[in-house]
Design a protein that fits this description.
Blueprint (H helix, E strand, L loop, with lengths): L2 E4 L6 E4 L35 E2 L8 E2 L2 E3 L6 E3 L43 H21 L1
Antiparallel strand pairs: 1-2, 3-4, 5-6
Length: about 140
């Protein structure tokens, strides 16, 4: 059974008897490893046993459990952290959690109010005595 593989990088078509992942299965034009390129999908049942998903209205079939490298476009298994081809991270690391904001500084309490000025006792007594004498004089005159 011969397999026709199209290079995803330069679109050069190559025919292999079977895909063995050997050194002679590289693209002769751009040296892309064709054993990692996905073969064209067939209309019949898949004989490899890999899981495929066909969505209504979508073109072609997508293999479940693989993802493309964001750097080179290579398809890798879902469990890998590093790309098989370029050895870069498949997942971009999440943004670091920002440092918590510092607590606001406590407000300084206002300064205590000063006591109202105290009148000397003799001034209060003198004013009170004058008021009493005026009242007595007012009442006496009547």
């Amino acid at each position: 059974m011969s397999v026709e593989v199209t290079c995803p990088r330069c679109a050069f078509q190559t025919v292999f008897q079977e895909i063995r992942r050997s050194a002679d299965e590289f693209c002769p034009d751009c040296d892309f490893p064709l054993f990692w390129a996905s073969p064209p999908s067939s209309d019949g049942m898949d004989e490899s046993g890999d899981a495929f998903r066909r969505l209504p209205g979508a073109e072609g079939r997508d293999a479940i459990g693989d993802r493309e490298c964001p750097h080179c476009g290579e398809r890798n298994s879902i469990g890998r952290q590093l790309c098989v081809r370029c050895n870069k991270l498949l997942v971009t690391p999440a943004a670091p959690i920002p440092a918590p904001l510092p607590w606001p500084a406590p407000h300084e309490p206002p300064p205590p109010l000063s006591d109202p000025p105290k009148w000397p006792v003799w001034v209060v007594a003198a004013v009170l005595a004058i008021v009493v004498f005026l009242l007595i004089g007012y009442i006496w005159i009547w």
